[in-house]
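Appendix B. Raw example, untouched.
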Amino acid sequence: FSFETTMMTTPKQLVSWCVIAALVCLSSVPRAEARIVTTEYSFEDRAFLAAGSFGYEPFGQFFLDVTNYIVWVPNNVDSSEFKGHGAFVLERTSSDTPRSEPGLDDGQCFSDAMKDQPGFDVWILDPLKSTWSFNKTIEDAGYYHLYFVNCYGPTTSITMNTRLEQYNMEGSFKNYLSAGESSLPTWYFFISGFFVAALVVWVNILRREIEHVRRIHWLMTVVIVFKILSLLMESADYHAIKTTGEPHGWNVAFYVFYFIKSMLMFAVIVLIGTGWSYMKPFLTDRDKQIIMVVLVVQMMTNIAMIIIDEYAPGSTELMFHWRTWLDILHLLDMVCCCFILLPIVWSIRHLREAADADGKAARNVIRLKRFRKFYLVVVSYIYFTRIIVYLMTATLPFELTWLGVVFGELANLAFYITTGYLFRPQTRNPYLALDQDEDAADQRDFSSDV
């Protein structure tokens, strides 16, 4: 991807690069996201690990099959002194966040401490037996977390294969979605309809004002299209999982469209912040560097998201712990959000200086006010979708966590509509209705500023 002066002269170039990046990223996806989870543990030496989580309604079903269970003991350990056990522990809580540590005193085994506690089910594994099957009909609704506990000691390791199947019952039908996710297929499809309506309105505006349409408007249109496609694929993905427990390839389609949409959206925000195509027909070296950083960070964010979705929390195939990848996702997302604010801040500073320095103060003051509005819109969008929605999801009852998704998507819709309204093509738009002399003057201003 080359950032020369001719970079991004058409939306097609940016879309093509995003498609290539998405395919490269998805080529390493290990397996399909599912609610029927098969995990291989090879020489696992962790004393405590999370193996799965699910939001159950009454009469939900839990099935766990363990095969090829082997306990590896060092040669220098006398078999007569070998004590301890391995165990699976199922905990009922009101939170969708599993434990990262047992939270007990050193030397105390988690399975022993919780064996007779309410809200816990403990299944002890006999080291002389290699195959186990556990099942449970859920009586009390709640979020259930499954843990594996190695109480043999720090010198032992475990090898085993597990198959975990969890679902709720809707009449005589199995629902493999967690209680807080059951309505998401309908919500994603319903919200995609709002974006389709917004796209129709936007296309009509472009047709009406075709003489004032700039390249940035076509990129904004492409973003909306991929947003709609990602919502539809996510709805299909959740519906397939809900009915069969497997996504049947819909998750890959979702990742492709989501990957392209997210990279394009952040790129468009940066391009709007730099004034590309409507205040200046070129990108400065500083603009290109910001876009490159944003695209790279956004690519890393999407990779972290795919890893979180595709691997079980206790998987041994990850370079880092599953929770570490979750922290990386949040960190990269916030870094990307901070970077997209920089061009807007620079443009505000430039317009403030230009309003005092040149002879077109009134026009620059109008632009300055509009950029300040856009800055507030972006900051509000970031604050709501990255902080408020996260806190909402963390504090809502487990069966209402879908509200966080719905409010997040409605915030996306509001952001798209507001951005389109501020930067829509129109004859007297203070941004876009510039005569040729003003365009030339702006080019000289930005060039001298850099």
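End of appendix B.
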